[in-house]
Amino acid sequence: MRSIQLSMAFAACALVASPTVRAGEVYGGLGTTGFELGYAAKLAPHAGLRVDGEFLNLKRTFDENGATYDTKLKFSVLGLYGDLFLGQVFRFTGGFVVGSRKVSGTGVASGGTITINGTDYPAAGESVQVEAKFPSVSPYLGLGFGHSQSSEGLGMYFDLGAVFGRPKLKLTPSAGLLAAAGQDNVDAEQARLQDKMNKLRAYPVIKLGLNYSF
User: Fold this and answer.
1) Most buried of 74, 126, 182, 196 (most Cβ within 10 A)?
2) List of domains in the chain
3) Nearest CA to 96 among 77, 75, 80?
4) Angstrom distance (rounded) from CA 141 to CA 134
């Protein structure tokens, strides 16, 4: 809740700083949220607003509880940010990301069995699907440099921060594995994994890119 309040305060300060847009900027970059493309408006010497689209499609394979998971991290969000500049270089940023952020994957037995709630079950031809969804609206807090140019030209920007919000996990075994383990054990395993997810209170954000002011 405190992170949401701080994000709203940053954005509000940028909004009321000045009713007149003094400079515009287009920008694009890469980072832990994927590829982004956006537009920034400098409202005053020490305040600005930004909006961008952020897209990530990343695959990874890992082993867990006797299963090999092929997973995908996929983001498709709109970022809304307010910047407060400290001098001509550094800034604080608060805002929100709105849209879909999720991790999904399918696990198959790597050794003939899959462990559910501490017990190994035969899993030949069976599988487990896992999906973790982040909140559709999440606050962002961070700092960085760039987006502060008052004259036309090319520049760079950097962001370091975090998007706050715990993902919600769903575990879905195939019919044969569900019959062997039982729904109670599946629910207990899902609760165990959710407890792990609950420790992920924030998703780290690191971005680097180029901007052009006009």
Assistant:
1) 126
2) 2-213 (2.40.160.170)
3) 80
4) 17
Q: Residues 6 or more apart from 41 whose CB is under 8 A from it?
A: 21, 23, 24, 25, 48, 49, 50
Task: Report how far residue 81's alpha carbon sits from residue 93's, in angstroms, rounded to the nearest whole number.
Answer: 7
pLDDT tens for 24-46 read: 899 999 999 999 999 999 888 88
Q: What are phi and psi for residue 112, nearest 5 degrees?
A: 95, -15
pLDDT given for residue 9 in this prediction = 46
CA distances from 137 to 30, 97, 142 (A): 21, 6, 17
For the chain, how long is the longest CA-to-CA vector?
67
Token representation of residue 211? 């901007």
pLDDT of residue 1: 52
Which of 9, 213, 153 has the alpha carbon at shortest distance from 92?
9
Its pTM surpasses 0.85: no
CA 156 to chain centre: 22
- Beta-carbon contacts of residue 61 (< 8 Å; ≥ 6 apart): 68, 69, 70, 71
Q: Which residue numbers in the chain have pLDDT < 70?
A: 1-23
Do 75 and 66 meet the contact criterion of CB atoms below 8 Å apart?
no
